[in-house]
UniProtKB/TrEMBL annotation:
It comes from Pseudoalteromonas obscura. InterPro entries: FA_desaturase_dom. CDD domains: Membrane-FADS-like (cd01060). The chain crosses the membrane at residues 33-50, 56-77, 176-202, 214-235. Residues 62-315 form the Fatty acid desaturase domain. The keyword Transmembrane applies. This is Fatty acid desaturase. Keywords: Membrane, Transmembrane, Transmembrane helix. The keyword Plastid does not apply.
């Protein structure tokens, strides 16, 4: 680790990120069309989503392939939303900006609405690593119990219900119904369908029974949605939640250097696939929040060594044993 002060190390990393981005933009002038690039990515993602769902509906592709493809496509939609939260696209054209926000929410309906998430995400950047970071705590950060963490990572609504009392005591201005209502109507409908299907098959296993005609039709719709929307987003969100809750520190954090570590471990590669390489690139976002996700991807290979040189830890998976606490005597891998 460098002997520089924390601020000097942070400035060195930020300078390297900005220099690499400037170099990339100079080599590829098309990158100046930031709004247009984002819209093309959104429309391609949405078209791919609809196309894959259609192929499954007409029985051209099997359910497992549909699930994998949609999970990957929706991970791109998540990256777009992340950028939209920082108003990187069409910030001066609110109709188009909000249209994009709506589309990425429709593609990922197991999340709170992006307008509310913007509030908690920007707050996350201010209080990352502390008990006040609602966004990360909602997805499992700071939980020591492996079982409870697994529940929260896999089911955001159940995690909210389980942790509501604790959040009320520890997080200033936390209101359960404010978070819950931010999921209405998409997230609430999503989880209602998911849990109804689970309950139905559990009951069928315990004591088989026949559904009326209208019930059969409803089940067919629910099963279709499970394949083209619900299960893919379980895979996507579980992958993202696992990685983000593992790489963000909780407690002992004093500056940006200590907010996250970079995850490159091969054990996380299957999960990286469904959250667009989040573990290897997200730390860059903490140093340069207002940067498109595709820029972050393109410069990450050159920036990771710089971050390592200036004190950012890599694969500090031991922190999971301490509920993500940043410990001074832990060395980077």
């Amino acid at each position: 680790m460098s002997k520089l002060t924390a601020n000097q190390n942070i400035n060195a990393i930020v300078t390297a990120i900005k220099a690499e981005e400037a170099s990339l933009r100079a080599r590829y002038p098309i990158l100046k069309w930031q709004n247009g690039i984002a819209m093309v990515i959104l429309l391609l993602s949405l078209s791919s989503f609809i196309g894959v769902a259609t192929l499954y509906y007409v029985a051209v592709i099997p359910a497992w392939l549909c699930i994998i493809l949609v999970a990957f496509v929706t991970s791109i939609a998540h990256e777009l939303e992340h950028d939209l939260l920082h108003k990187q696209y069409f910030s001066k054209r609110p109709f188009i900006h909000n249209f994009m926000m709506l589309i990425v929410w429709l593609m990922r309906p197991n999340t709170v609405n992006p307008w509310y998430r913007r509030q908690i995400h920007l707050h996350h950047h201010k209080v990352s690593g502390t008990s006040q970071d609602l966004e990360e705590r909602l997805v499992g950060n700071g939980i020591k119990s492996p079982f409870l963490r697994a529940v929260v990572v896999a089911d955001g609504l159940l995690g909210l219900l389980i942790n509501s009392k604790r959040f009320s005591e520890e997080i200033r201005d936390f209101k359960f119904f404010q978070v819950f209502n931010a999921g209405v109507p998409l997230a609430t409908t999503y989880f209602a369908i998911l849990h109804c299907v689970i309950v139905y098959y559990v009951l069928q296993f315990v004591h088989p029974f026949e559904l009326p005609a209208w019930g059969v039709e409803l089940l067919a719709v629910a099963e279709f949605l499970m394949v083209v929307l619900i299960v893919p987003n379980i895979i996507r969100s579980t992958s993202l939640n696992l990685i983000t809750s593992s790489m963000h520190y909780y407690g002992g954090v004093n500056n940006v250097l200590e907010q996250t570590h970079v995850i490159t471990s091969r054990w996380f590669l299957p999960f990286q696939l469904f959250c667009f390489d989040f573990g290897r690139t997200h730390t860059i976002h903490h140093f340069a929040p207002n940067q498109p996700f595709y820029i972050r991807q393109l410069i990450s290979q050159k920036i990771r060594p710089v971050m390592a040189q200036h004190g950012v830890r890599f694969d500090d998976l031991q922190s999971l044993k301490h509920a993500n606490q940043y410990l001074e005597n832990e060395s980077s891998s």
